[in-house]
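Quick note —
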Amino acid sequence: MPNEHIVRSYDEELRRLRDMVARMGGLAERQVAESTRALVRRDTDLATEVVGRDAQIDALEREVEAYCVRLLALRQPMAADLRVIIAAMKASNDLERIGDYASNAAKREIGRAHV
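Predicted structure written out below.
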């Protein structure tokens, strides 16, 4: 199989990285959907939940970044693997920002309720 490495643990590490980014994407998607729902329905309780979950995405971004740095340092990836790792770092940063935007929108609903 041309896409597999001689060291099976390296394939598992790359798979874990992809899973982490996918999980982060799912969380960001949920944040946007629920933030929008909170704004439309004027649901301050849901907005508060969205704001509270922002830390989860932030923590996952830090975990992805640390994992990528570890892979770069220990595996010294070449070509396609290097691109995957760099793309994962960039995607996690973008997903974290999306989570921040959703949280900020939810904060607006909370602020609107207190006016």
